[in-house]
Specification:
alpha/beta, 8 helices, 7 strands
Length: 199
Amino acid sequence: INATHTKSAIEELPPEVTLSFAPDAQRLQYWIDRARAAGHEVLIELPMENFDYGRMKMHPQTLLAGRDASVNVARLNILLGRASGYFGVINYQGAKFSGDATAVRPVLEALNERGVDGSLEEASFDTVADETRVRYVKATAPIDTKLTAADINLELLELETRAKETGAAMGAGYAFPITIEMAKIWTGELGQKGILLAP
C-alpha cells in the first residue's frame, strides 16, 4: 500500500523473506515483478470477513462467511486475477470467515485446483486444508502487534525458540519501517545462531 515501505522491504530484506501484497495495491504487478527480481517469493493477501466486518471499509471482494460458494469463488478469482507471479495466498483478517467450514471449503478447493499454497492463520483452516489437500502453514505469531524495537525483538526471539523446539516456525508482520529494520537486523544474525532462514 505504501510505495516507500514496499521498496524498502524488497531492497533491504534478504530474498528468503517472503513478501505479500494487497490485491488493491497501486501498480500491483510492478511490485510483484520487482520483488521476484530481487529473489523474494510472493503471496497475495485475501481479504476475509472478520467479526467486526462493516465497521471499517473492506475490500469489495472480501470473502464472506455464510455466502454461497459461487459468490466467494467468484470473488477469489477476481482477487487472484489481479496479478501473476505469486505462489500462494495469505489471509488478511478473517476470523469469522475461517470459522465457517462451509464457506472455507470451496475457496480452498479452488486454490487447490490452481496449485496455490496457503498461509492462513485461523484454526478451522487446519481441517479443511487437510481435506482439500492444500499445502498450508499457520504463522506462529505476528511479530509487530506492538510497534517498538524491544517488542518486535521479543517476538522474533520467541519465533527462534519455537523454531528450535519444533524444527520450524513462521512469523508474519507488516511493512512498517520499524518492522523492516528489526527484521533486517534479525535475519542478518540467524546464521550465527544456527537457524536457517527459508522462504
